[in-house]
Amino acid sequence: MQVEIRQLSECPEHLTTVGTWLWEQWWHRRTPTPALVIDLLRTRAAFDRVPYTVVGLADGVPVGTCSVIENDCDHRPQYTPWVAAVYVVQSHRKRGVASAILQEAARIASRAGVTGLYIDCLAVTAPVYERNGWTILESEVGDKDSVVMLRRLTE
User: Fold this and answer.
1) Residue 118's closest CA among 145, 153, 82, 85?
2) CA separation for the pair 68, 80 (Å, rounded)
3) Mapping DSSP to helix (H, G, I), strand (E, B) and coil, where does residue 90 land?
4) pTM for the complete prediction?
5) Backbone dihedral angles phi then psi of residue 91, each to the nearest 5 degrees
6) Would the pLDDT of 46 be above 60?
7) What is the pLDDT of residues 16-32, one digit of tens each?
8) Strands of 116-122's sheet in order across
9) CA 50 to CA 68: how far, in whole Å?
10) Strand 146-152 to strand 135-139: parallel, antiparallel, or no bridges (unpaired)?
11) Which whole number is the average pLDDT over 32-60?
């Protein structure tokens, strides 16, 4: 399976799908509809500049996403920017989609002059990020079993 990775700003026809995914996974308790998330994604339209969102497409159909944003961890405001909202649809998990999305997000960050990306993730998911160049920076951060990881980038 070949997955094409693009910035969401290059394929705005997928904005509603991606925004709905993010709302269903993380925002549904904070806001009654996906509209707020979709509007937020719409503001991330600059090409190769933080913040941005990437989307993985299989035969033109969205199958995964992640965003790079200024801050995603209230407990660590000194770190920036962050990979956030990594999501792959169930039918495409364990097929390399997350890795492809993460690799492209890192390439874009490097082109934007970013020297390192952070992620706050559950400790059980850390191996996915380690396989993609992240290392654990801190453990047991915040109020959950999470780790902060860093991926150093070179230009």
Assistant:
1) 82
2) 10
3) helix
4) 0.92
5) -65, -15
6) yes
7) 999 999 999 998 888 89
8) 4-7, 52-58, 61-69, 82-88, 116-122, 146-152, 135-139
9) 6
10) antiparallel
11) 92
Dist. CA 111–CA 54, nearest whole Å: 14
Quote the tokens at residue 11. 């394929």
DSSP per-residue codes, 34-78 = THHHHHHHHT---TTSSSEEEEEEETTEEEEEEEEES---TT-TT
| 4-114 CATH | 3.40.630.30
Q: Each residue of 72-123: pLDDT tens digit?
A: 877 788 999 999 999 999 999 999 999 999 999 999 999 999 999 999 998 8
Amino acid at 70: E
Q: Which two tokens stand for residue 111?
A: 């082109």
Contacts of residue 92, defined as CB under 8 A and 6 or more positions apart, other chains included, come to 1, 3, 56, 58, 63, 64
| Two structure tokens written together for 126 | 């850390």
Selection from 149, 155, 69 nearest residue 107 by Cα: 155
Residue 143's pLDDT is: 66
Place of tokens 């709905």: 20
| Token output for 135 | 């290392």
Matching residue, tokens 């989307």: 55
